[in-house]
Amino acid sequence: xxxxxxxxxxxxxxxxxxxxxxxxxxxxxxxxxxxxxxxxxxxxxxxxxxxxxxxxxxxxxxxxxxxxxxxxxxxxxxxxxxxxxxxxxxxxxxxxxxxxxxxxxxxxxxxxxxxxxxxxxxxxxxxxxxxxxxxxxxxxxxxxxxxxxxxxxxxxxxxxxxxxxxxxxxxxxxxxxxxxxxxxxxxxxxxxxxxxxxxxxxxxxxxxxxxxxxxxxxxxxxxxxxxxxxxxxxxxxxxxxxxxxxxxxxxxxxxxxxxxxxxxxxxxxxxxxxxxxxxxxxxxxxxxxxxxxxxxxxxxxxxxxxxxxxxxxxxxxxxxxxxxxxxxxxxxxxxxxxxxxxxxxxxxxxxxxxxxxxxxxxxxxxxxxxxxxxxxxxxxxxxxxxxxxxxxxxxxxxxxxxxxxxxxxxxxxxxxxxxxxxxxxxxxxxxxxxxxxxxxxxxxxxxxxxxxxxxxxxxxxxxxxxxxxxxxxxxxxxxxxxxxxxxxxxxxxxxxxxxxxxxxxxxxxxx
Length: 511
Known about the structure:
Blueprint: H1 2-21, E1 25-31, H2 50-58, E2 60-62, E3 65-66, H3 72-81, H4 85-88, H5 108-114, E4 118-123, E5 137-138, E6 149-151, E7 156-157, E8 176-178, E9 185-186, E10 193-194, E11 196-198, E12 201-202, H6 206-223, E13 230-235, E14 243-245, H7 247-250, H8 282-293, H9 298-328, E15 336-342, E16 347-348, E17 354-355, H10 361-364, E18 368-371, E19 379-381, E20 385-386, H11 390-397, H12 419-422, E21 436-440, E22 453-457, E23 461-465, E24 471-475, H13 493-507
Parallel strand pairs: 1-13, 1-15, 2-19, 3-20, 4-5, 4-13, 8-14
Antiparallel strand pairs: 2-18, 6-7, 6-9, 9-10, 11-12, 15-18, 16-17, 21-22, 22-23, 23-24
């Protein structure tokens, strides 16, 4: 009996050792232009996101996750290399493989591949070209995956029901509306006809195709006898403009019943973004054009845009649910880490701004949920983190060897592992900064670090410093909408100084 127990103990130890040494799989899900309009994040009370909400209940919700650059290209370049924009001087719309610093870095996908992972992906992950050398298998090749686009027989155009002058913005940013209310559609930039008769008789939209591809691949991997770990990236473009979805998603949000976010008419008066960028910047210009399109009726104008945005959020939530359900019904569910996030948020008219690429909460903040076998289910993390932290988190969680560099011209790994914030080991400690840093708005590759605009979010504060030295300070404990700029209040002089110093410490220069 004694020998039997000894043998049994050895077998159990061997099984435990095998389990601990088995590499976890990774599913990385990313949306585009998605702010906090999900039920669990509470950004809009009428948002319909049962799948994201369910994921948060099973995983860990990061309440203060931030984009490091709230516009597509530099945000994704930073995320997938782990390099801060201020360290790479990546401030514009430069493809990663052509950017002077980041072309010398390994993407996260490349590092997984080097560590024996099978890499497969589809959709909008890296901006533009998906860098085929990084992937063992790739899904759809459509550039950016935007659309479908309304079509007038010759050109892609904005939806004909969008009023002027907003419609004149064009087929991407100037278009929103139901699929049923336009006669002709085409797929993305490819120009292939998109067939729509009704919601039940139509071609699948591109995000639906990405979800279909991902669920199919999970089943194929499960059926395979190959136990090679995998990294799967799924990049959904919704709710990026143009804001089009099947009718049933629009019907979830009747115009007359919609609620607008709280708004302060004088909110923009004590802010300084308008003094630091061209007043015809998209965010300010789009807001003015939308108001003009509805004869200055702010409520009506924003309700039409908001309806389309919420419809696209509900639509993409359904696609995310398909991927999560496929994982849940597979043998991989107990050995897979899932990360869900977005490249940046979206400003819905607050401070007279309708776009991304602002220093404020609606644009800089992103939803983030991590679901992992060792994670504390249902936990809510208040410590601010940012997208640049994803790279080192996965390196530590998956025990990856190697660095994020191809050579000594590459940028340094800038983030910190978030594992101490979501694992079940109470002895692990977050080693990152007190807050999360966002760089904003100066599009241009020759703009120096000191000429940039910075936004810094801690648990209780948002501090903004512009290139001209102007500042904004918001106390999130009692001003969640960032309505009251406290920069001139002498009671907060030391708070402002402390936050300024933290920003300079992260950047490595005095502003």
